[in-house]
Design goal:
heterodimer; A: alpha+beta; Chemotaxis protein chec; 4 helices; globular; B: alpha/beta; Rossmann fold; 5-stranded parallel β-sheet; 5 helices
Chain lengths: 182, 122
Amino acid sequence: MISSSAKEGFNLLLTQALKDSLVPSGAHCEVAMLPDDSSIRESKMAVLTVSSYLFRLMVMFHFTPDAATLAYFARLNSGTADIAEQECLDAIAERGNLCCGILNRDLSAYFPHIGMSTPNVIDRHCAAYLKMLNCGHIQHFAIDIDQAPRLHVSLWVSEYAEIDFTVDAEAGGSSTGELELF
Amino acid sequence: MAQILVVDDSSTVRTEVGDFLKKNGLDVALAVDGRDGLAKLKGDPGIKLVLSDVNMPNMDGLTMAERIRSELGNAGVNIIMLTTENSPIMKERGKAAGIKGWIVKPFKGEAVLPTFKKLVGV
């Protein structure tokens, strides 16, 4: 069983991680929670997991490798609008990796023994099999960013024990990009 | 001969980091995972700095660091991890393997370039 406070916490931390990883600096972004997945029609998903011995959390980044999506991730990664499809798939997977890295670090404040996977790109039809996991928390998100196609992300949390925690919304995230010398 | 070896399974990261370092006058070699990184390091005695991801298929970055010290006996090369991970347990394992430092992604080149240049002797 996942408490309502924990569900809110997962949603809040993922929302923050999405804003910090998928949005260019200075761009306006709205992240909305969807009541179901009926509006999600993209053909592929980049999937990452964040796991502890208490739960397994999956984040799915839905996308169709069309011209608008390719152009958005090309600009996001290199500042150019020219990118091949395979490079785009890798760029989306890496953005997912950054997002789940943030989520992993933020969740480690509540669950010290935690780790994350590398990204995998799979077909959307695989999503039907996720229902067999009997997840205790599922939430779909729509992300609207300036000059970008609408993006969709899904969060599935499968618990192995009672999960209850409360996120401190005021807590700052860890710093990134700095070299910590040993 | 390269001065810096960039090891990451993401072609996006290899391109971003490699292009930045080349643009700033450094010679760069690229590897797609820890196993490839070990092979590239064995074949190029000019490499002074290894910049590596942690989570990769075939061989992860921390295992690669341990094998650089134990198998290659290469204590001279500096190893820095570039990863989304920030776990104290992983950092301790890295320290035990003799890594020099840790960067949490995303890569911000200008912030680390002076140190990289110092480590490769430029």
